[in-house]
C-alpha cells in the first residue's frame, strides 16, 4: 500500500455529494467529476459509497494492462493516471477491465476519464479535493498510522477478490473489525446487505 493514500470508510458516508462537487472544481478535470457516489441498495436504503479509483497495484492495474495505446501511465509511486489525451482512442477496454467500475468514457471526446488521486495536489503533499471537503471523514487522506491514531482499532483492506482473481490496491477500504475476511470479496453478486448474508 502507498504511504499516503485515500482510505474509504463507507460507514461514514452520508451521500452529501460534497466530494463530487469538489472533484468537479479541480482545475485538471475540466469541470467533470471523476468520483462517483454509488447507492448500494437504491430504493431500499440510503446507504451510499464514494467510488474513487482504487489504484490497483498487483497485478499491474487492469485498466493499464489492457490499454492498446499505452495511454494509462502508472507512476513510480503507484498512482494510476487518467488516460493521456494524446494517446487514448476511446476503445473502453479500461472500462471493461476495471473490477471496481471506475473508468468512464466521454463518448463525445472519445476519451477515458477516471480519478487520478488529484496527482497535481498529492504529488506536492496536499490532500485530494474529495478528502478535503468530506464532512464525515468517509474519505480520509493520510497514512494508515494516522488513520489508526484518529480511529483506534480500525481495520483496513487493500486486497480484494473477484471470482478467482485477487487484486491488491493502493487505496484502502475501512472494514468492520469483527467481519474481516481476507481477501475482502469484491464485485457482484452482493453477498451481504446490512450485516445479513444474502447468499442463503
UniProtKB/TrEMBL annotation:
Residues 4-34, 79-108 form the 4Fe-4S ferredoxin-type domain. The keyword Repressor does not apply. Pfam families: Fer4_11, Fer4_2. It comes from the Bacteria. SUPFAM superfamilies: 4Fe-4S ferredoxins. This is 4Fe-4S dicluster domain-containing protein. Keywords: 4Fe-4S, Electron transport, Iron, Iron-sulfur, Metal-binding, Repeat, Transport.
Amino acid at each position: 500500500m502507498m504511504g499516503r493514500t485515500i482510505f474509504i470508510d463507507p460507514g461514514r458516508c452520508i451521500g452529501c455529494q460534497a466530494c463530487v462537487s469538489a472533484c468537479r472544481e479541480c482545475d485538471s478535470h475540466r469541470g467533470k467529476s471523476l468520483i462517483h457516489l454509488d447507492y448500494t441498495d437504491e430504493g431500499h436504503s440510503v446507504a451510499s459509497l464514494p467510488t474513487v479509483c482504487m489504484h490497483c497495484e498487483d497485478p499491474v492495474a487492469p485498466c493499464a494492462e489492457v490499454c492498446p495505446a499505452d495511454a494509462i501511465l502508472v507512476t513510480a509511486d503507484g498512482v494510476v493516471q487518467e488516460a493521456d489525451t494524446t494517446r487514448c482512442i476511446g476503445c473502453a477496454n479500461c472500462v471493461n477491465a476495471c473490477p471496481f467500475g471506475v473508468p468512464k468514457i466521454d463518448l463525445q471526446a472519445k476519451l477515458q476519464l477516471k480519478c487520478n488521486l488529484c496527482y497535481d495536489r498529492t504529488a506536492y503533499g496536499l490532500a485530494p479535493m474529495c478528502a478535503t471537503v468530506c464532512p464525515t471523514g468517509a474519505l480520509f487522506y493520510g497514512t494508515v498510522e494516522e488513520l489508526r491514531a484518529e480511529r483506534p482499532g480500525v481495520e483496513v483492506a487493500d486486497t480484494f477478490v473477484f471470482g478467482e482473481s485477487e487484486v491488491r490496491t493502493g487505496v484502502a477500504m475501512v472494514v468492520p473489525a469483527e467481519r474481516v475476511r481476507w481477501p475482502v470479496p469484491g464485485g457482484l453478486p452482493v453477498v451481504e446487505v446490512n450485516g445479513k448474508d444474502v447468499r442463503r
